[in-house]
Amino acid sequence: QFIPPYTEDCRTDMYPPKGPTFRSTVSWYTIDLDLPPHKRWTSVIKDKKKDLDDMIQAVRDLAKAFVPSGRLIELVDISLPLMLNTLPNPFRDEIKGIASDSGIPLGEITLFNIFYEVFTV
Amino acid sequence: CTSVVAEDSKGNLLHGRNLDFGLFMGWDLKNKSWIMSEKLKPLVVNLDFRRNNKTVFKSTNFAGYVGMLTGIRPHLFSLTMNERFSLDGGYIGILEWILGQRDGMWMSFLTRSVLENATSYENARSLLAQTKLLAPAYFILGGNQSGQGCIITRSRELSLDLLELNVKLGRWYVLETNYDHWEDPFFLDDRRTPAMTCMNMTTQNNISIKTLYDVLSTKPVLNKLTTYTTLMQVSNGNLESYIRDCPNPCMPW
To answer: In angstroms, rounded to a whole number, what is the distance separating the alpha carbons of residues A26 and A24?
Structure first.
């Protein structure tokens, strides 16, 4: 159907995934729960640092579109690290480890981790 | 998002989901895509959480996100969550948290905690239904035995509804998008009807990982927000994921 909502006949023979609706497979990583929380995500972040940085930059750009002065991201960088200290472990220390491994400000990594609660309105 | 738990004619439980995220978070006019959805795609990873060198659970996740949205505890249960929009939403939960009322749990921390610690389908269902949350949500849970599949509709405080598989009544699958199942979906965002049409056409005799992927590949179940598709089978502990694209013409949501 070439007008919204672009419904189509039920697809068949799509599997194994291929063609224009399939971009790529997904890589596997191991998270060792025996490691201290701040070290668990190091190998994942090492591989995905640039992609994580790109995504966070898109969030910064979006925030700047709403508040051009940059005060919104300033608020995130100042206030969310304070809130992080109230989050339960091991989540708190894992988030701190991710911020440390990626070099991305702690408040911005915290914001990513509470995206769901922020966007349910 | 669209999540489905289905039981095949041999009693095997299959669980599939499309993760849709990024609505209204920047539209790329040139590529006709959501900026945030596209930025999230390279971050999709499959994770094998191990303790004492043994798998505890597996998940499909975004690198840098410590909570869980999609996961499987092999041989016990599979779990996905879908966003539930409400005016009594997570921002109120966050405000309460900041003001010191911290008896609720962050949604994705609860799902991770359930995947890590729940010892059975029933135990997982009970934790997901009864734990106080900061934000409303839909939890879609599948088990390892006939009849073990349900949608838990949650407000921040309460479990509002539990819809379970019942093959004797002809309910061989449960399907959730982002609307309460007892109400009609928003008319501009009806992914439920096409998904159910395709499930009904597939029939219980023909449902499999392969045909579940077909259903999740049909527009508008597949749409511009769809980041990944995950397929899980609890009986063999298998989880597989694929990063998706929705070529034009395709619904933005």
So the answer is: 7
